[in-house]
Amino acid sequence: MNWTEMLREELLARPADPHCAPVEVWALQSGRTAAAQQRLAILAEALCGGPDAAGLPEIAVRACGCQVPQTIMPGLKKRCCASAFLSACLLGYGRLSAGQQLHLELSFPAAATAVGEALAAVAGRLKVPLHRAAGERLRLYSKAIGPVTHMLSLCQAHCTRLELESQSAGHDMNRAVQRRVNCDAANAGRTALAVARQTLHFEMLLASGMRLPESLIQAAQMRIEHPDDSLSELAARLGLTKSALNHRLRRLEDISVERNGKNMIK
Asked: Which pLDDT band, with edges at 50, 70 and 90, does 4 fall under?
C-alpha cells in the first residue's frame, strides 16, 4: 500500500475554501510535488475560474492585505486555516510510510524554510509534536501513531487515519500474540526440563531400594508414569492439592540430591 499516494488523493479531494486559500497558496508555492501543482490548479479553478494558477499569489496578497508571508501567521490562528495549511504542507512536502515502522516526514527546500517554520509553530500549538532532523534542509518528522493520526484528523484525512489505525491495531495484536506464543514456548521448555529432572531423580531413588514413605513413592511413580501431565492434573490423579503434591515432589528431589551429591540435570 502506498500511504503517501493515498493521503495525497484524499487531501486533493478536500473542497477549496476561499477564506483559507491564502495560507494554502503560500504553503504550496514552493512545493515540488505533482500533488502540490494539482492543488494549486484546483484552487485556481475555484477562485479564478480557470486552471491557471499564476494569479494565485496575488490573490493571497490581496486577501491578506499586505505582503506574504508577514500576515500569514495571524490567519493560521484560525482552526480552519490551520487545517488547510497542514493539508497543503502534507501535499507539497510530506511523505507517509507505515510498513514495519510508521514514519511521517515533511522535507522543505530552502525556498520553503519559512513554511516549515510556520508548520512547526502551528503543529506545536495544535499539540502535534514533530521532531527536527539533523541537516541543512529543514525536515520535520514523527514516528508515533498518536501525533500522526492527530495531524491527519486535523487535515480531515479521516479515511487515511482510519486505515492507519486499523493497521496499527493489527500490528499490536500480532505482537501481543507473538509475545504470548514466545512466553508459552519458554514455559513449556522450562516445564519439560523440570519433568525430565524429576523423572531421573525419582527413577534412581526407586531403583536404589531406599526406604521411603508410601506417599512419596506414590508421587514418584505417578510422575514417572505421566510425564506429560501438569502439576494440577497429577495432583487430581492422587486426590491432592497442587501445594501438597509440589511439596512431595520437592522432598523427593531433595532426598535424591542428598543421596547423589548433586543435581543430575542442571
From this structure: very high
